[in-house]
Amino acid sequence: MLHKIIEFSVKNKLYIILMTIALIGYGSYQVTQLSLDAVPDITDNQVQVLTVAPALGATDIERLVTFPIEQANSNIAGTKQIRSFSRFGLSLITIVFEDDVDIYWARQQVGERLGQVKDQIPAGVGTPELGPISTGLGEIYQYVVRPEKGYEDQFDLTELRTIQDWLVRQQLLNVKGVAEVSSFGGNLKQLEVAVNADRLNSYGVEISDLFDAIANNNDNTGGAYIEKGPTTLYIRSEGLIGSIEDIKNTVIKSNVNGLPLLIKDVAEVKIGKAIRYGAMTYNGSQEVAGAVVMMLKGENSSKVVVKVKERIAEIQKTLPKGVVIEPFLDRTKMVNNSIATVEQNLLEGALIVLFVLVFFLGNIRAGFLVASMIPLSMLFAICMMNAFGVSGNLMSLGALDFGLIVDGAVIIVETILHHLTSKKLFGRTTVLSQAKMDEEVVSSSSKMMNSAVFGQIIILLVYLPIFSLQGIEGKMFIPMAQTVAFALLGAFILSLTYVPMMSSLVLDKNFKTKKNFSDRIMEKVERFYGKILRKVIRKTKLTISVIIGLFVFSMFVASSLGGEFIPSLEEGDFAVETRVLSGSSLSTTMEYSSKAAKILKDQFPEVEKVVTKIGSGEVPTDPMPMDAADMLVILKNKKEWTSASNITELSEKMSAAVAVVPGITTSFQYPVQMRLTNR
User: Fold this and answer.
1) Closest Cα partner for 176 from 285, 87, 307, 58?
2) What pLDDT is recorded for position 94?
3) Fewest beta carbons within 10 Å, which of 22, 62, 97, 481?
4) Are 76 and 25 found together in one domain?
5) What is d(CA 494, CA 496) in angstroms, rounded to the nearest whole number?
6) pLDDT > 90: what percent of the chain?
């Protein structure tokens, strides 16, 4: 069968050329569609249930909210684990499903059970809601909304938060691929009714009467319609509250004299703010508002970030003068760094392979022919990666070994060259016709194709155990095995079709038996290897003893090595986990974390900006307490560094610098690494 495929490819060159061109064209398009990220997303397949209940403590939250929801969702098919977190004012339940469970089906099941359990939760405690359809690595873009220099006094925290919630967030939610925009920091605007208890008692009114009056007077109602001549007039009553004056003039009841008692008679109505569970500071000098953009699960992070940036550029034009949207954490920075590393390594590897091929094959045309397998196999692999939903990252693309890819092609081309340059076949100089060339290529390729296929099958068998991995290990390493398998499959197909066809076309048909430099080098290598081999064969016992000794020694060395799941990926920025004394207030955490941020910004020229997120955001998928903060230290390009030569040295110096701030502990990590650790 292999012989027939090779024969067909050589005799029908046009078909193979057209298929190769189609692979190049379609593969080039698929390259633009490849989902790029730094590392695979190893987050569990999960659904989160969030319940905000500001009036309850942790014990009551657990008893009244968390436990009933856990019980209601405990028997969903495909559930692997349920974990929960209860603290003052918040319940967070994470329901983990098997990886093959459709996330939308899972959310539907959880939603149905939430409808059943709502009756068990006391009225007014809180309403359970499903978290965003995102993952632990879904935080792809973070920004602050802050006043420009000179406008600090014109915009307070309430105005900044209002701009974020009603101008920025609402438009970002319309971007395709965005699951949620979680507001952070600032003051959430509220209309506050401050009741005067003495006046309330003097009029004989209870606080519940105020609640009812505001609720009943904040509604629009509809009526029927009346016909007036040829037209129809629709009847409706507008009662929605639109301003503070509307609240002030709301009637509570009529007194004994028939005069209306208004809310402004017993209370002061003013603009207030909601209780805060989080804050955001900028460079340790000012408090700002901001948000975290969360990507929809399964989307291409690179493309979504580009769309978010384009939309933010449009939104910026609509903001009040003096207010800017400033990003501080952009996933594309890390992705670009990672992909640039992969590209550099792949390019260097390809050049090394090309040099070795040309040198040892002793034929420039043959070397370039074999080397052309590298980009073609890569294009085939990328097409398959898109088809099977494998993203391009350090683990998948970085695992490619070009030596494995060209192995089969080297065997075939080297056999063809050896066959064509044989003295016994052609004498001193021979010029072949195209028909004779095709015949010799088919004959030579068919003889060695079984060996090439056998070698590639052995390589694939080495990766088979990886496909059996489960859980986090599977999510991390299976994409690597898939990518290598796709590339080897492409190389196998090309070795059967493209390589024989191109060999018959591009290899020189005027063969001379004169030895070149590479031939002389290889003869010396073969003679040296032959001497060593003969000695080893004669001393069998000594050889086996040395091999066993080396094996035992290697096992001893392996047992003493340290272990790590994956090496730390240098992401380009720091995420400093900052803690103060447990139970500290929000203002206390802000004070001490701001001191640390200011030290980093002032003492290290490598720091571009420092943004500190304290506590939880509006969508508390990461329920940090108010005594904890994430300090995001955004660094400049390494070329501009002066305090340190590498990232490890810089982190050590920064850690020592912030240690002078009393009462805080810091841990220097990377943003994505910290998310992986927390999830």
Assistant:
1) 307
2) 93
3) 22
4) no
5) 5
6) 30
Residue 56 has pLDDT above 70, yes or no: yes
**Where is pLDDT greater, at 281 or 505?**
281
**Residue 484 CA from chain centroid, whole number:** 21
Chain centroid to CA 8: 45
Is the pLDDT assigned to residue 261 strictly greater than 80? yes
Question: Nearest to residue 112, comparing CAs of 135, 98, 128, 90?
Answer: 128
* Total residue count of the chain as it appears in this document: 679
- Integer-rounded Cα Rg, in Å, for the chain is 35
Record the pTM.
0.79
Integer angstrom CA distances of residue 93 from 76, 90, 131, 221: 14, 10, 10, 38
Residues 188, 83: Cα–Cα separation, whole Å: 30
What is the chain's percent helix, strand, coil content, to nearest 5? Answer: 50, 20, 25
**Can you tell me the distance from the alpha carbon of 29 to that of 469, in angstroms, rounded to the nearest whole number?**
32
Whether 244 is covered by a domain: the verdict is yes
Mean pLDDT of the chain: 85
> Which CATH number fits the domain that encloses residue 489?
1.20.1640.10
Q: Tokens standing for 678?
A: 């927390």
Strand partners, 227: 232
Show the tokens assigned to 443: 């004959």
Q: How many CB atoms lie within 10 A of CB 223?
A: 9
Residue 49: CB atoms within 10 A of its CB come to 26
Same domain? 18 vs 66: no
Tell me the pLDDT tens digit for each residue of 602-612. 999 999 999 99
Based on the fold, state whether residues 377 and 493 are members of the same structural domain: yes
In tens, the pLDDT along 519-571 reads 677 778 888 888 888 888 888 888 889 899 999 998 888 877 766 656 566 77
Helices (H), 83-138: 103-117
Which range marks the domain in which residue 118 is found?
44-134
Q: How confident is the model at residue 423 (pLDDT cuts 50, 70, 90)?
A: very low
Decide if 357 contacts 372 (C-beta within 8 A).
no
Do 203 and 268 belong to one domain?
Answer: yes
- Number of H helices and E strands in the chain, helices first, is 26, 21
Q: Closest Cα to residue 284, out of 612, 576, 575, 578?
A: 612
CA distance 142 to 49: 23
Neighbours of 12 (CB within 10 A): 13
Last residue of a domain, one of 257, 273, 289: 273
> Would you state the pLDDT for residue 517?
62
Residues 412 and 508 both lie in one domain: yes
Do 656 and 588 belong together in one domain?
A: yes
What is the rounded CA–CA span in Å between residue 148 and residue 322? Answer: 5
Residue 619 placed within a domain: yes
Q: Strands 90-97 and 79-87: what pairing? A: antiparallel
